């Protein structure tokens, strides 16, 4: 396990944050990207970063909190952006609606899959985890869309339930592709080497401070 330094943590946090708010920033400036055909919605590094942190970070709390904090910060920012047009209260309600509880539960479940990698780290476990994480999120979050999303308003019937999951398949495809791609990058020899380098740099900084104080 490795102790990443602040630079790596800030880089991962910032990238997750920027990728999540990007479509809403584009919409704020008038771009029409509502459909999946014009923008790759849910093409996100969040799950891969969660797997990476939970699988390899020495501090499990940091591995868990990093993607969650980035997601929450992005949702608040999205609410503020929407608030510029509709008012802050309505904007935050748009970004932090009741169904978001299940979205975060889905994110927690997806990140938790990284414990598989922490126990056994090889190509197989990374591959399985990179598939399982977005699938778990899809199953949990789309239940929230069916049960709580009044904007779309799926019927509270078996047909409506099936419709909600069928409509979410393009988003599942994007999150699967992105999680596999980002996981391949993060868990590659280059990604592991970067984490090791950051860990060594972090330990060196701590030692230098201790020596100076001594």
In short:
Helices cover 78% and strands 0% of the residues.
Write structural notes for this entry.
The protein is an all-alpha fold and 214 residues long. The chain has ten helices and no strands. The protein has one domain. Helix 2 packs antiparallel against helix 3, helix 2 crosses helix 9 and helix 3 packs antiparallel against helix 5. It is globular and about 45 Å long.
Our measurement of the CA-to-CA distance between the termini, rounded to an integer number of angstroms, reads 28 Å
Estimate what percentage of residues fall within beta strands.
Answer: under 5%
Poorly predicted tracts of residues: 206-212
Report the biggest beta sheet as strand number plus sense, adding barrel if it closes: none
Q: What would the average pLDDT be, to the nearest integer?
A: 87
The H/E string reads HHHHHHHHHH
Which structural class do the helices and strands define? mainly alpha
The number of distinct structural domains comes to 1
Q: Helicity range of the residues?
A: over 70%
Task: Specify the number of helices.
Answer: 10
For the secondary structure, the number of strands is 0
What Rg is obtained from the alpha carbons, in whole angstroms? 19 Å
The gross shape turns out to be globular
